[in-house]
Amino acid sequence: MRGLNLHQPGLRNDPDWFRKAVFYEVLVRAFDDSTGSGSGDFTGLINRLDYLQWLGVDCLWLPPFYASPLRDGGYDVADYTAVLPEFGTLPDFRELISQAHARGIRIITDLVMNHTSDQHPWFQASRSDPEGPYGDFYVWSDTDEKYSDARIIFVDTETSNWTFDAVRRQFFWHRFFSHQPDLNFENPAVQEAMFDVVRFWMDMGIDGFRLDAVPYLFEEEGTNCENLPPTHEFLARLRAMVDQEFPGRVLLAEANQLPAEVVDYYGTEEAPECHMCFHFPVMPRLYYALREEKAEPVIRVMEETPAIPKGTQWGTFLRNHDELTLEMVSPEERSAMYGWYAPDPRMRANVGIRRRLAPLLDNSRSEVELINALLLSMPGSPCLYYGDEIGMGDNIWLHDRDAVRTPMQWTPDRNAGFSTADPGKLYLPVISSLVYHYNNVNVEAQMATSSSLLHWMRGMLAVRAGQDVFGLGDFVVCESDNGGILSFLRAMPVEGELAAGHEGHRAVLCVNNLTSRPQAARVQLPERFAGAAVRDLFGGTGFPAIGEDGSVTLTLGSRDFFWLGLNPHEENS
Ligand SMILES: OC[C@H]1O[C@H](O[C@H]2O[C@H](CO)[C@@H](O)[C@H](O)[C@H]2O)[C@H](O)[C@@H](O)[C@@H]1O
Ligand SMILES: [Ca+2]
User: Fold this and answer.
1) Is 212 a catalytic site residue?
2) In 3-state terms, the chain is what percent helix, strand and coil (to 5)?
3) Which CATH number fits domain 114-184: 3.30.470.20, 3.90.400.10, 3.40.630.10, 3.20.20.140?
4) How much is the pLDDT for 441?
5) EC (predicted)?
6) Which ligand lies nearest the alpha carbon of 158?
7) What does pLDDT average to over the chain?
8) CA separation (Å) from 542 to 373, 529, 534, 551?
9) Was domain 473-567 assigned CATH 2.40.128.20?
10) Domain boundaries, the chain
């Protein structure tokens, strides 16, 4: 056992930390440029940790910062144990970990196991020396006909999962871009090499990994080459190694699949795999429900979500560095969502929408608040995307997913306070559109305005942090007589293991008006809440108690929501 991170100053010794945490995805490149190079870096991120601590996030997720030609935002790794020189050095990264930990903030990073860049020395060796030690590191074939049942993921750019290599005079397999050859996981040396990568970064002190594109590790003829048994066997071995050598560190699966398939990435009691999995299908349903003004799509996807093993957690999100993926919705839902959210074809990418949260919702403050309230109160540990806490805009005139990867907007000054470089030297231009210009949308201005979205987000995170039930409690949909109202309980037992030592209310009733008009609704709770006292979690104001039949009638303004603490034993006041 090499690495318990629990003794780091600032980190709480809590095995459930990831189940209660708010994650924050931040691109090192996009956050703060401390050197004037035009690109963000580790020192810049260190300089902004106080801001992230102030905001109330618990764990950062850093997408790849490894040596890379950057043809896929760093997901094209050219050296797994080197960092991009423009981001700093390994000692700088180590300093970032220790500075984050000192502030009680954990860090997980991306582990891109499925593929490398074609610039990786393993691929260069594999293509030029088929009989050498790396000859079998990739998936080679004399034809491009194998695995024909596997879909193409990057439909905008790729026409085949095979590309001919003129050096080796064979085809190589790639699930993503043709410059990203898939590693051959059938080769034990590849598996061992990946274990060593995991050890390298965990030894350095990171708190876990997001496992990128994890369904695609193995291939098998006659299948769609996704979620195959050997992939799960490999993940179980990886988890066993992590548990043994780095207890307390987490693995988070990025498996863009239906819930019934994703749950397999938690593994079994005998052979656990990941501690967390992103829940892809729920995210588009939140956007869908806002436009359809109906709770049903969200309720349905939650009903289709199987229970997960004890001690694990979903990861949830509204946006990330990729397009808002519509792979997990039906063709009818997809075309409705394109119509609502991506009327201009430039807003689309692959099977999804390359826009940020605020522009998706046409900068409607009440919709941004409501969808964030849903994210923060539904099951799962929410992951925020940098800049969405201030309602940053996007730039659909940029290439591919760069539309949503522009520099963080700190101030109304040059380059939005992100960099002192000549503006032309920035890795991407700052947002200067009419509505989302950095003159108006920036951290400094919002910090100075108590009614800003930024202050609202911080307040929400603070309230959530005081209620363990959001991370640990059950999710129970409460029937209501109004289809535009989504109401559910987050509850955990008063007696028993879960309740011991945890804070806050044991039951919170969340009621959300998905419609743009005021609504009244009679909400039915389980019988045990009959007569319970009701208090708003934000101001502590008492509401009328739950009726003796277990129901309560509430009125909500347009896109309004309530988080109501329930106490069956309190005198109502
Ligand atoms: O490394 C290749 C890609 O891996 C992740 O991709 C995921 O995003 C895709 C959409 O952009 C999605 O369709 C796919 O199912 C996912 O695995 C990573 O997040 C991407 O940035 C990266 O290009
Ligand atoms: Ca693969």
Assistant:
1) yes
2) 30, 20, 50
3) 3.90.400.10
4) 98
5) 5.4.99.16
6) 1
7) 95
8) 20, 16, 6, 16
9) no
10) 5-113+187-462, 114-184, 473-567
Question: Inter-axis angle of helices 365-377 and 453-465, to 10 degrees?
Answer: 20
Q: Which pair of tokens denotes residue 386?
A: 């940098």
E strands in 112-194: 140-141, 162-165, 170-173
Average of per-residue pLDDT across 361-366: 98
pTM of the model: 0.96
Q: How many residues does the chain have?
A: 573
Tens of pLDDT, residue by residue over 155-203, are: 999 999 999 999 999 999 999 999 999 999 999 999 999 999 999 999 9
Q: Please name which ligand lies nearest the alpha carbon of 324.
A: 1
Q: State the complex-level ipTM.
A: 0.93
Q: Each residue of 24-65: pLDDT tens digit?
A: 999 999 999 999 999 999 999 999 999 999 999 999 999 999
Q: Is 377 helix (H, G, I), strand (E, B) or coil?
A: helix
CA 447/CA 227 separation, integer angstroms: 45
DSSP string, 84-115: -GGG--HHHHHHHHHHHHHTT-EEEEEE--SB
For domain 5-113+187-462, give the CATH superfamily.
Answer: Glycosidases (3.20.20.80)
Which residues form the pocket of ligand 1, taking CB atoms under 6 Å from any ligand atom?
A: 72-73, 75, 112, 153, 176, 212-213, 254, 256, 321-323, 325, 327, 350
The confidence score (pLDDT) of residue 499 equals: 45
